[in-house]
Each structure stands twice: as C-alpha cells, then as structure tokens.
C-alpha cells in the first residue's frame, strides 16, 4: 500500500517540477523516488496486510513481483537521459506517467478483488497508450498509439464483460469468493463461470502479448520510442503474468481440467508464432517484439502446468527476462542514436536494423559484451539466468506430464537461438563503419549491473529459492 501512495504523490510532484526552467533535476528525482519506493516495499516483509475491505493484499509474493517491477522501471528510467537533453521533450510528463503506470502494475500484482484488477489494468494501460504516442512528429508512433488504444479498448471490454459474468455465476468479485464457488463442482457450476473465465483470460492474455491476441505487439513495439518499448516489454509483462498466476492459482484450481487444455494450446501457438516470425525480421526492434511474444509463451507453460513449482518459475523467469531485455534495449538506444540516418522505411528506422550492429564489439567491447550476455540469456544458453528460467518452466511441464508442450517449447528454443545469434555474429564477425560510442558513466553502470545480474543468476540460480 505504501509504494502505491509514494508513487502517486511523487508522480504529482514530478509534474510540478516540470515547471522549472532546468530539466536536470527530473531524472535524479525520479530515480530517487523509485529507489525509495523499492526500499519501502520490503518494510512489511513476512507480514500480510489487507486494504480497502479486502480488495488489496500485500504478502511476500506480491512484494517480490513489485520489486521486479520497480527494479525494471529504475533501470529503464536510468537509460532515459536523452529526455533531459532534448529541448522539445517533456520529461516531467513522461516520468510522471511512468510512476502512475507503476501504481497500476502494483495493483495488478496485489489485487484480491476483480474490481481492483480492472482499475490496475486501466491505470497501467492508459499511461502506456500515451507514452506509446509520445513521439508526436513520428507517424509510426502515432499509428502505434492509435492501434494500441483501439485494440486495448476492445480487450478491456471483453475482460470487463468476463468479470460481470463471473459475478453473475458466483455472486462475488473477490478472489476467495470465486475460488470457493469453483472448488465445489458437485453443486453444478454455472455456464457463466466458464464463459466469464474465458473472456477474462482473453483480456489478460492480450496484455501479455499471447497469440492469437498478439497482432498489435510488433507495430506498437516498433512505433513506440525505444525507451518505452523496453518499459512495456518488461514491466507490463511482469504485472500481467503476476495477475494471471494469482487469478488462476487462487480462484480457478477447482476447474483446472477445463482451462488447462485451452491455455496449453494458446501456449503452443504463442511459442510457434513468436519464434518462427522473429526469424525473418530485419529490424532488431521488431525481432525483440516477436521475442517478447515467444517469452510470453514460455511463461504460459508455467500457468498451463500450474503446480508447486509454478510460483518460483514465474518469479525467476520474469526477473531474468526483464534484466536481459532492458540491457538489449539499452545497447540499441546508443547504437540507434549514433547511426540514425533519419530515414524511415517499411521496416522502421534503418538504424535499428541488424546491420547497425556490424563490428560493434570491436570498437565498443563493453556494449558488445552486454548485448552478447543479453542475447545468450534470452536464447537460454547455460551460465545465464535465461537458461535456468527456461529450465524451471520446463520442469513445471514435466511435473504435470505435459510432454508434448515441452517438446514444442524445446524445438522453438532451438529456433530462437538462430535469431538471437544473428546479433552476436553481426557484432563480432562482420565489418562495419563503426566509431566508438560515448557512454555516460551512469549509463555504463546500469548496463554492467544488468549484465552481472544476468550472469550471477545463471551461476547461482538458487539464490532466490525459499525467500517467498
């Protein structure tokens, strides 16, 4: 509860700081706010508190997900120094919206009532609609924002209708109330429960870019400013999967036999659509969009095979994926800024294509190493966090006996190695007219921290076990 209050207050304060002539204070103020909120988040560790008549609940698991969300936001904001350097940008508004969106994300990981889930989704979504279209002079950004808004509005409507049907079936909006009803199938469950659950899942699966609800993702990720793409692909996805896990594990285990097959099929489609389509992308940014779809598929494995290992698997995978993705987008930001030709093609900005990375590791070994570790982790190569994230996810499928889903996931992981290694090959084995890229000290520290964390979790994966 306290993180929500702090983020709300600091978001309003940042908007007022925007009236100052100097923008220099905005970035450190935002980082300080996020760091303070991250520390405060753990004050109630090992304690359970319920707020607003049971609509919001904090426990160790919600605090861990909140920490991942806040930590990801801290790293993304730390890479956004270009906002304060651009005279035409409005960093106070951007940072304020980021803080407000985090309020929605925390609600999504802490809800105990479907109404609170809906409010959290809307707060997060509306902020992302605005941030996606923040580059007003870029037609791709405007198109992406419009597409995201229209499709997001339809998905929200479907989700809200599903909540209404669940209330009609169970007479309750609370997670406990719905769970107690679904746990007694002998009384004859209403058809409204099943239809409501499906519609609620559709709305949430849209938010995490699961197929076949993923068609907005490539255009929105490509059109949005890169820094907000990084935020969207990490914070939004983590909050979405935290909400899905809490919803399914607390309310619908009683009807697991009904929804697991549907979710498993969606998982397989997501894995195939994300990985196969990423293979023939020429834009690194669009490749990362399809990569995000594929990783949604890996996370869905843990939900389809809901069991004793799912909680640990989702937390670890969310952290590993977020850190590696932020590192990759951080390097892309620097490369695109230096090599941008201001030319827009059907593929997007050509400075964001794979060719832009040619020879990067020779002139910029730090950036090359950070990108390499990021790509290896996303590909699931051993000694990186991504390997253990996939291992834990695959273990949940084995625990449930869903071997066919495991086979699909392993095959798609092999496909993923191809397009992730395209970047590594370009950096180390191709010639490019590269010049050393100047990296600000704090920017360098963030990339180093992300790289060390990725390698550290890969070498000592058990450090997070048992803490929640």
Automatic annotation (TrEMBL):
EC top class named in words: translocase
NADH:quinone oxidoreductase/Mrp antiporter transmembrane domain residues: 113-413
Q: Which UniProt keywords apply?
A: Cell membrane, Membrane, NAD, Quinone, Translocase, Transmembrane, Transmembrane helix, Transport
Q: Does the keyword Translocase apply?
A: yes
Q: How does it sit in the membrane?
A: Multi-pass membrane protein
Residue ranges annotated as coiled coil are none
The processes (GO biological process) annotated in the record are:
ATP synthesis coupled electron transport
TM ranges are: 5-20, 25-43, 63-80, 92-109, 145-167, 187-206, 227-245, 257-280, 287-308, 314-335, 366-389, 401-421, 442-464
Q: Which GO terms describe its cellular component?
A: endomembrane system; plasma membrane
A molecular function (GO) held by this record is:
quinone binding
| Record-listed E.C. numbers | 7.1.1.-
Q: Where in the cell is it found?
A: Cell membrane; Endomembrane system; Membrane
Its catalytic activity? a quinone + NADH + 5 H(+)(in) = a quinol + NAD(+) + 4 H(+)(out)
Q: Which HAMAP family match?
A: NDH1_NuoN_1
Subunit details: NDH-1 is composed of 14 different subunits. Subunits NuoA, H, J, K, L, M, N constitute the membrane sector of the complex.
Family stated for the protein in its record = Belongs to the complex I subunit 2 family.
Function, as annotated, reads: NDH-1 shuttles electrons from NADH, via FMN and iron-sulfur (Fe-S) centers, to quinones in the respiratory chain. The immediate electron acceptor for the enzyme in this species is believed to be a menaquinone. Couples the redox reaction to proton translocation (for every two electrons transferred, four hydrogen ions are translocated across the cytoplasmic membrane), and thus conserves the redox energy in a proton gradient.
Give the matching NCBIfam families.
NDH_I_N (TIGR01770)
| Protein name stated in the entry | NADH-quinone oxidoreductase subunit N
> What organism is recorded for this protein?
Spirosoma profusum
What lineage, starting at the top, does this entry show? Bacteria, Pseudomonadati, Bacteroidota, Cytophagia, Cytophagales
